[in-house]
């Protein structure tokens, strides 16, 4: 009997079993840990500045970077998320009770009256479209409340995930380089291939998050401020919708801004409509041209359509965390495929 082969099979069975059990133990926190890894990549430039210029020890530099990240990134995102959940619930209640339907009917009637002299029957057609939009909006808000609101439903669970996220983020910042080298050494791939995957993945994630998503978030924030100033209801909710629309190639923020401007004009708020038009054109629209060369000049970039689909698909699959995990998944695919092509040339 070949005892060496038996030992090999036995050890392999133990390895598989231990891997499955470890996955089951860590599975509730995998998304939280993955988010911490993504934010560690995003905050890496800040960490390098703190570590290099301030000459702080690694642990203290990681803690300072963590505090800065909480102040300027994580806390604003959490506040906006809470506000969006609240406004989504309000908007859903208004749609169910018919309050928003009345406003939509007023807007549809106003637009139809403008078009009726040139397009007979425009009023009835636009009213039909508005009813369909209200139906889809109700379904979308219901989905949003179910999937995003659940993240805020359990205070204890939320605090536990937040604690794990902050601890993981701290150690990723402090020992990220050591962890990467360990994974490269332990990987069954060749060291240079594993290192190439990590490098391309880091560059792609940094480019997507610091570039496309950052610009979209800034445009959404500016649009939300404009909606609030000029009296558009549920400004935070529509600001987030504008941020998602900013990822759509060729259309962008106008997909949300133009209906909002039309809404103000149709409701008789001409001055506010003109104000939002100028705000959207001069601030929201032009900020993309100003920031894109600075934030997206380096790193492996994904096509805007790929980013949009990865964000939307990630949100459907992972919930709110999919905003970051979706692009991470697609980035990993491209990174592995690039290394694969270098090793197995296509004939």
Secondary-structure topology with pairs:
Elements: H1 3-26, H2 30-42, H3 44-53, H4 58-97, H5 99-115, H6 122-148, H7 155-186, H8 191-229, H9 235-245, H10 254-266, H11 270-295, H12 304-318, H13 322-343
DSSP strand count = 0
Spatial gap, N to C terminus: 45 Å
Radius of gyration: 25 Å
Shape: elongated
Structure overview:
The chain is mainly alpha-helical and 347 residues long. It contains 13 helices and no strands. The chain is elongated and about 90 Å long. The two termini are 45 Å apart.
Notable characteristics:
mainly alpha; about 350 residues; about 0% strand; elongated
What would you say about this model in short?
With 347 residues, this protein is mainly alpha-helical.
């Amino acid at each position: 009997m070949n005892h060496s082969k038996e030992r090999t099979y036995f050890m392999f069975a133990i390895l598989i079993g231990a891997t499955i059990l470890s996955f089951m133990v860590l599975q509730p926190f995998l998304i939280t840990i993955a988010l911490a890894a993504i934010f560690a990549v995003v905050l890496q430039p800040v960490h390098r500045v703190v570590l290099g210029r301030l000459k702080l020890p690694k642990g203290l530099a990681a803690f300072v970077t963590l505090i800065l990240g909480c102040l300027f990134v994580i806390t604003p995102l959490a506040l906006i998320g809470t506000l969006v959940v609240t406004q989504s619930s309000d908007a859903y209640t208004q749609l169910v009770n018919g309050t928003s339907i009345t406003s939509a009917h007023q807007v549809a009637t106003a637009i139809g009256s403008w078009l009726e002299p040139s397009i007979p029957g425009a009023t009835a057609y636009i009213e039909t479209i508005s009813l369909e939009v209200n139906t889809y909006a109700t379904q979308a808000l219901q989905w949003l409340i179910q999937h995003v609101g659940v993240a805020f439903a359990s205070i204890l669970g939320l605090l536990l995930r937040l604690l794990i996220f902050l601890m993981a983020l701290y150690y990723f910042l402090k020992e990220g380089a050591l962890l990467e080298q360990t994974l490269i050494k332990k990987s069954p791939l060749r060291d240079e291939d594993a290192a190439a995957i990590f490098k391309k993945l880091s560059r792609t994630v940094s480019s997507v998050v610091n570039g496309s998503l950052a610009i979209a978030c800034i445009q959404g924030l500016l649009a939300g401020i404009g909606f609030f100033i000029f009296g558009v209801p549920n400004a935070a909710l529509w600001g987030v919708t504008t941020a998602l629309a900013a990822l759509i190639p060729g259309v962008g923020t106008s997909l949300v801004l133009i209906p909002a401007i039309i809404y103000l004009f149709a409701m008789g708020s001409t001055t506010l409509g003109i104000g939002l038009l100028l705000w959207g054109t001069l601030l929201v629209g032009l900020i993309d041209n100003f920031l894109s060369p600075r934030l997206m000049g380096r790193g492996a970039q994904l096509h805007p359509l790929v980013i949009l689909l990865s964000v939307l698909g990630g949100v459907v699959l992972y919930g709110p965390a999919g905003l970051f995990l979706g692009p991470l998944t697609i980035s990993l695919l491209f990174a592995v495929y690039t290394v694969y092509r270098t090793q197995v040339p296509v004939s």
